[in-house]
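#lab-general

N.A. 3:47 PM
ok so I finally got the sequence cleaned up, no stray characters, all 128 residues accounted for. can someone with queue access submit it? mine expired

B.Y. 3:52 PM
send it over

N.A. 3:53 PM
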Amino acid sequence: QVQLVESGGGLVQTGDSLTLSCAASRSTFSSYTFNGYIMGWFRQAPGKERDFVAALRWSGADTYYAHSVKGRFTISRDSAKNTLYLQLNSLKPEDTAVYYCAANTLGLGSAPSLYNYWGQGTQVTVSS
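B.Y. 4:20 PM
back already:
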């Protein structure tokens, strides 16, 4: 079982930056790795569907971004800390949403149905 805990959300102004973190753990094992996992970020605004933001292969260099955030957001991970990050730059009011961390072992993709582990979410609010 994989546990994901997001942090770092908050209220910022248009043009500001923010870094989200997702601490990952596996409760069954005292020693583990996330090699073979895909880790990603999704977001959901009020009244809207959950949308893909970015994803990466934990053990490789592949990254994948939604068109709407490419060039502004950067996904990365620290394997030693088992932590996934999302750097959000040049924030816009339309970036306001709950941001979720997710994981899967199926493949690098944007469909929420691929991901079988989810965090509880962290709120990002961008004021104009």
